[in-house]
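Minutes, project huddle
Topic: does the predicted pose make sense with nicotinamide-adenine-dinucleotide bound?
PN asked that the exact inputs be recorded in the minutes so nobody has to dig through chat later. Recorded below.
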Amino acid sequence: MITGGAGFIGSHVVRLFVAKYPDYRIINFDKLTYAGNLENLKDIENADNYVFVKGDIVSVEDVKKAFEKYEVTDVIHLAAESHVDRSIEGPMDFVMTNVVGTVNLLQQAKENWKEGEHVFHHVSTDEVYGSLGEEGLFKETTPYDPRSPYSASKASSDHFVMAFYHTYGLPVKMSNCSNNYGSHHFPEKLIPLMIHNVVNNKPLPVYGKGENVRDWLWVNDHASAIDTIFHSGRIGESYNVGGLNEWKNIDLVKFLCQLMDQKLGRSLGESEKLITYVKDRKGHDLRYAIDATKLEKELGWKPSITFEKGLEDTVDWYLNNSEWVEKVTSGAYKDYYENMYSDR
Ligand code: NAD
Ligand code: TYD
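Predicted holo structure (tokens), as shared on screen:
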């Protein structure tokens, strides 16, 4: 069972598993919040080895029913509230889904997996490690120091996952990944939001001075890392996932603007004029950067493409899928945008 399989990363994981493992029955368990979208999986919805179940990981009944009906043998857990800015506005949804929902899944796995071989793979973030200064990288041994309500909820869920391993012997694995980018990314996060605004000639809201650094990984490379860790990682271990690809936000936005000038046939420098510096995010973590040596050395994983290629593919996807963008940005997105950016 893959939870959160209708979201950004989840849909890439589901698609990979459905295509690569015809003998598995892939259950996509998702509540379809604003971030979940079955349009993301149109191409595989009729596959023989695929089932979609609408359910809430917080509900004991929903999760118990899915475990029993489909005799769930393994879980890859991606369902979450995932946006830092939303967590600052309202932390409680993050506590419910990320903490309570994760513990509910762990409980059901423990109840249902009395014998046989199983894996509970918890997908988490590098944000649990806190904020780096100019130097250094997050390792698996870096102490947890979450600073936003989002990262605090993910850190808590990680601790519960490891607690179920140590206390009950639940066969868990964990991965902590850096920022993802790619197709089907909801335009509340930096890269798809900037692409969307460039296309529509709207201001590009860069928080603070744009000096914060993020380490970007192509979403399909994250999906391949999850595949590798799920199948070959050691029980009870966590693996950091990242591609040594650090960018200051402002440099990334400028690079993206140049790429989009080319794609849209605009003169060089035109899109950059849309950059607007806005009020900083509260408690804005300065820098994230991942050391993925353990995953590379132990399991032989590495990213498959360069950032330049991945970003170009991503921009092409958004330009060729304006209907998808139109659907997800009509309705509630407009209110979100107004609320988040109007007096910034
Ligand atoms: P997303 O917000 O795009 O998708 C989340 C999915 O979970 C949606 O399909 C949503 O409908 C579903 N969901 C939310 N609450 C649910 C609930 N209560 N019950 C069932 N389903 C529910 O998130 P994403 O960016 O795809 O992230 C997936 C996972 O990867 C998350 O656990 C996130 O913390 C982690 N992660 C994300 C990134 C990133 O850059 N996006 C990086 C590292 C780790
Ligand atoms: P985001 O995509 O929200 O991911 P995260 O906060 O999980 O790293 O943001 C990435 C970086 O971009 C982060 O430093 C905040 C910044 N940012 C902006 O400058 N403007 C924006 O409109 C958004 C959404 C993010």
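Observations noted during the meeting:
- The pocket of nicotinamide-adenine-dinucleotide (ligand 1) is lined by residues 3-4, 6-10, 30-33, 35-36, 56-58, 78-82, 97, 101, 123-125, 154, 177, 179-180, 186 (CB under 6 Å).
- The chain has a mean pLDDT of 97.
No decisions taken; revisit at the next huddle.
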